[in-house]
Here is the input.
Amino acid sequence: MGKEQQQTYWRSLNELAQNEEYRKFVEREFPENATELTDGVSRRNFLQIMGASIALAGLAACRKPVQKILPYTRQPEHIVPGIPLYYASAVPFRGNLSGVVVETHEGRPTKIEGNDLHPGSNGKSNIRQQAAILDLYDQDRSRKVLRNGSDSTWEDFTAFCREHFADTGRRVAFLSEAHSSPTLERLRQSALNRFPNARWVTCEPFSEESVLNGTAMAFGRRLRPSYHFDKASVTLSLDDDFLQDSDNDVAHIGAFAQSRALASPDEEPSRLYAAESTYSLTGSNADHRLRIKSSEIPLFTFALAAHLSGEVSGLEAYAGYRNTFSDHSWISVLAEELMRNRGSSIITAGPEHDAPVHATVAAINHALGNTGQTVEYLDVPYTATADQNEAFAGLVREMGEGQIDTLVMIGTNPVYTAPADLDFQTALEQVPESLHLSLHYDETSRQSSWHVNRAHFLETWGDGHSFTGVRSVIQPLIQPLFNGKSETEFLNAVLSGEDAAGHQLVRETWQELLDGPFERGWNEVLHDGLQRGSRYNAVSVSLAGSFSAEAAGFLEAAEEPGGDSVELVVRPDPRMHDGRFANNGWLQELPDPMTKVTWDNVALMSPNTAERFGIPPTRRFGDPNQMVVRLRTASGDEAEIAAWVLPGHADNSITLHAGYGRQKVGRVADQVGVNVFPLRRSVSRLYCTAADVSATGRSYVIACTQDHHSLEGRPHVQDADLDHYRENPTFAQDAVYVPGIYGDREHPVSLFDDKQWPDHQPQWGMAIDLNACIGCGVCTIACQAENNIPVIGKREVRRGREMHWIRTDRYFRGDERGNPQVMHQPVPCMHCENAPCEQVCPVAATTHSDDGLNQMTYNRCIGTRYCANNCPYKVRRFNFFNYSKEYLTTGDDPEIIQMAMNPDVTVRFRGVMEKCTYCVQRISRAKIDTKNETGDTVKPSDGTVKTACQQACPANAITFGDLTDEKSIVSIQKSKDRNYLMLEELNVRPRTSYLAKIRNPNRQLSEPS
Amino acid sequence: MNSKDKPFGVLAEFANPADLMDAASAVKKAGYKHFDTYSPFPIHGMDEAMGLKPSKLGWIVLGHGIVGLLGGVALQSWTMSIAYPMHISGKPFLNFPAFVPVAFALVILLASFGAFMGMFYLNKLPRLNNPLFNSDRISKATDDGFFLCIEASDPAFSEKRAEELLKNLGATHIETIPA
Amino acid sequence: MSQNTATVPDDRLVKGNHDFASITKLITDIPQERTPLWWYIAFGISNILLAVMLAMVVWLIWNGIGVWGLNNPVGWAWDITNFVWWVGIGHAGTLISAILFLFRQGWRTAINRFAEAMTIFAVMCAGLFPAIHVGRIWTIYWIFPLPNSMQLWPNFNSPLLWDVFAVFTYLTVSTLFWYVGLVPDLATMRDRVKGKISKLIYGTFALGWTGGNRQWQNYEKAYMILAGLATPLVLSVHTIVSFDFAVSIIPGWHTTIFPPYFVAGAIFSGFAMVLTLMIVSRKLYGLEDIMTVDHIEKMNIIILVTGIMVGFAYSMEFFIAWYSAFEYEKFIFVNRAMGPYAWAYWTMITCNVVAPQFFWVKKFRRNITLTFILSIVINIGMWFERFVIVVSSLATDYLPSSWGYFTPTYVDILTYVGTFGLFLTFFLLFLRFLPMVAIAEIKGVLPQANPAYYRNGQSTKTQ
Here is the structure.
């Protein structure tokens, strides 16, 4: 195992041509160590050098550089050219791992999928994990060690460390991003032992600190609440976007979808209440949504607790408390619901809310007996005992006062992300030596005396735990492209001044973690991608004695915000998070799930608020220009950013997404959007009240992929309340009148006889369950990764030329000034049996295959665009320019990004049409394998073919399979009463069908506020 | 001119279409076959006067049209259902309603070629060296002149009698055109 | 004829006391006299426009279709709009030369020659757009059924392919028809030009035409047959062009009324264009005697009729949209009138439905200035008609999520403007070097041409 993953792969041939090693080589007639070719490493060098020399031969001649494909001089084990290999690994994010399986082609990782065995993933993934592959092949990643901005080497750095850290008395501060790595923890301990004056601070701009503080307040211990939405029949989200802004989102989405699943009308789906300021993805999936300012969430929470205090024990602290929300219609209704569902309800609050909110939430959950049922409190050994936000503030203060000699930054980008009032940058200038490990030469690296280029997690060894504590090893899939170092290697170098390989460091750590024979256990972990049975232990909790006192304190402190004072809420961006993914083109071009805006962040506000500041509450159709507003916080920090009207947003509240406006990081990230971190305070980080908003009169072009957000009363998205569904289970199918009878029910009849498909062929079909889909958009990224879909940039997206093969349409319904409902609908190619696109193509470039696929023959396409015009679903995408060429051949060494391409999928040329293929490459592989195995049939058994979107979808909303097999999951889905065809009346007979969404509103609140 | 070498024919000019037409019928009565009248525009009734059989052009065009039709249908049926049949919008391979426009266009196209080339073929054109052009008056035939030419190739031709006849018919000018 | 009946002579098609010779002179002198200054100026401007067009086409092919303003819902815009517009204009020529010929409309002889020329050049402009609008022009020949190693053939189900055949046939047949008509006049030129070279050239193209009656017999037959063939062709071409839309399933395109509606529109715009050109050239070349006010009036009547047909089609579309009870259809038409493209829609209505109403009044029909202005207004309107059909239907179709607004780029605009350069360049060359009126046919409609004219005791000598 250990060896295979060290796949041979060559870096840019041209780059190699320059390197010293090669020069030496060409001076000699024969490679001196041609004899040691048996040794893997030398063989690799040899191949590299050969490759380089060939590249040179090409360059030397004044022609197109000739590049030859070299065969392996010795075939590495397990590699069959053309057959991908899959390795288990894990993706770290904010210190938590999610288990993944990585697909590699001849040593190139090309696709990341979830790991079925991993409880945090269940074989599913989210947009960050899907897009991680592009980060690996990011050309703009830092490629060398820099000393005060000038080139240096890793050797110099280790030498420096040996010399510099010889004096163990130094006041060293380690500033690390959140982690759960036993290895890093081991090194951390030895660091703290080695340097008596050292301190270790964790720096995450968006962290779970206040959640931990909350639980500490409530239970006296900093515990991580872990929610089981699948067990909950009622959930109340207090400004918490747990389906997206969470370290455990994949599991959350799966559990949530499961709790809403409806096989038949008599089942009882769960119910979700959301009280929030912005219209979050979670809110868009709620049965009832209350739009209140984030600054009112604490009051709302306290009021609820106060109301409940009369009915359950454990909330005495709130007895008698009253505020503006005490008489709110929701409070009593919620209280009733929660009482009715004691032990099977969940209350969650946004992680950025202050500790009192989380304390109250914990208290309520506990009082309602949810603890141990739907909520678990995990003891996480990797979280510090003190509030790290405060610790960070303290550190910055000391830095400013010159009390820190050396600052070691492991990841993190505080110069960019630190709250404005701390003024990290000036503080940093007071620190004599600052060492920074980062993927990019970023804002912080520029201010540091040492920059060490970091290795991507797919390049080096690491380990850690999932959100719930499942322990995994991060297994590299490729040699570091730019000789980067992992955090463990970096920290080890700092401590020992030696250059130890991550592999060996991790193995060292795991000697203790594995019982039984090590190699066996180790290989098992590598194979499975996790250590079975490992998890954080859930502790039983009880209210801390000090709680009532504390509660009295914060209830006292809770002040009522002025009704029309405007609050600014800074949240992590659904795609960029805190900006760490800003140089990822896939994520930049992925439309925001709610606004469908790409390549920018905007100031989200309700129509009323917009009007209040002289911004048109509705956008003119086809006009990309948005008014720019100037936002000024009470403390005078300013930002100018385009305003965006988001129906359903709370009035007098403005939501801003962080992670944009980065400087000199990379060709993708630079100058995209506006940096809103300066508007953030170190205390009550989520929002600042009493902001001053004014229209600048300037306008700014925004690239939005969906120009029109009303469904115009059309029946494309079918949804109904549970009651209506029970009365009329086939409401979705009966929604449109279809002339003609076919079989027993209405069905369009055709002029021609129906096509007879050959019996020996499978007939592919897809069903998309809108009841499960939450609209996160991971299908789009998964598809982009699988099908080599190029990134085309803001200008082209603005012109409405986005290339995504599957998009998620988002519609608002209802009162835009009030609280409209939102519907999400993923739309891939429908693979119509009577495909309108086929008959209009003059050269028959798009036709039907025997297994019912609507095929696009790129080579034959001459690009009349007639097919796209005639597609009622508008799912066809045209290469208006040579997008793939721009995408794959620009930059210093395009070979890097080219390695991310899936060799099984054609790269499309300028002027041709393209569209969803149902992942035909996966279908063909499965059919061939089946044929080889069975010898006769080409019908793969159900479940063997998974489309990229289906495989990624954490909600299991997408099912795909053979319609000729009545027992296939997709056939079962399609046989459900909620199943309907979009635009059935056109008689195009789509193979992709939808299952209607069922809402589960509470009659007492039937009128959405 | 000397009478040894045979001339091309005798050319007479007449004042107006009416005289020309009378002359033509007279010449026909006199038993001449190889003669023709020349005018700047087609004169109605001249065909009868000269006793010309109706033009065969129609048949040529019809032939071409039929070829176009059969060819069009054959081409489409063969390519769409035999040479490379493909599933297109769930339609049958032989989708005749869709074949109509192209077949029609091909009928028109070939028929037009038939009419165009057939006409020049029947008129023995192009023929750039016509003995007629040896006369310097004939050029009036494309302007306002009306001529009748009895050709020497006619079995009944004799220069004398032809000139005689034409003079009597009131030709304003008569000349013999050398071959 | 009997004594006790008197015939009222219908007023003469050719004004002024012209005889055969004077007609010949009037027309054949044009190519022979010195090139007038205005011609050089006009030709220069046309060439500049043509150059602009070529530059835009090169730019387009070099960079890709993206240089146009097209986007995802709107895959066709100015390209196909221009195509349909130019083809439509072309129709007038064939209509005049073929259909009016079959209806024995003598007055057509004055204008058919350059109406046909206009047709050919307009169809050339039209043909340009489908050719350059494809993403990969270097593979455009795949639309022809050429045997190839891939054994692949075009898709005969596709209206676009029908278009290829229809337009190609149309261009060929119009050219043949035009040339057949030219042969006798080329002979006239051959016999009148002085210069050796010009004599040689005209002579060559005259193919040795003698004007013998045995030739005239076949000639008339051929001309009649070609007219007979061109008539269904001209009707079919725009019908098939309209199939590009009618056969699709996009609301606003999927309409059975399109074929007649498109043909009417084509005649409408074509006649307007003929008038525009005719009014200018008759002035410049002093051909008022041949292209008389009567001609203009007759054409204005046709414009009025076709204008009303088009207007009827507009209202009919709305009726059907409502009557079909198909919500998407209903929406698209309401949206045309009130939606983002309302400005284009109302321009169209004003130019195509309101403007022609002037021609109810005889005084206006015979007013040359007004006719000239309206003829241009109408062509603007007809361009917008095609724009509204092509773009507004695509912009807002079934799924609101994929709606998108189209805005042209400078390349869209300059390419269109440039085609006028192409058109005028050819047209000016035609005016300069070819007899712009069918000489033989004009003579044919003079009273003197009819032998009967000499038998009713009138003087045998023509004045």
Observations:
- Chain C touches chain A through 53 residues (CB under 8 Å).
- The mean pLDDT of chain C is 88.
- The CA atoms of residues 93 and 118 of chain C lie 7 Å apart.
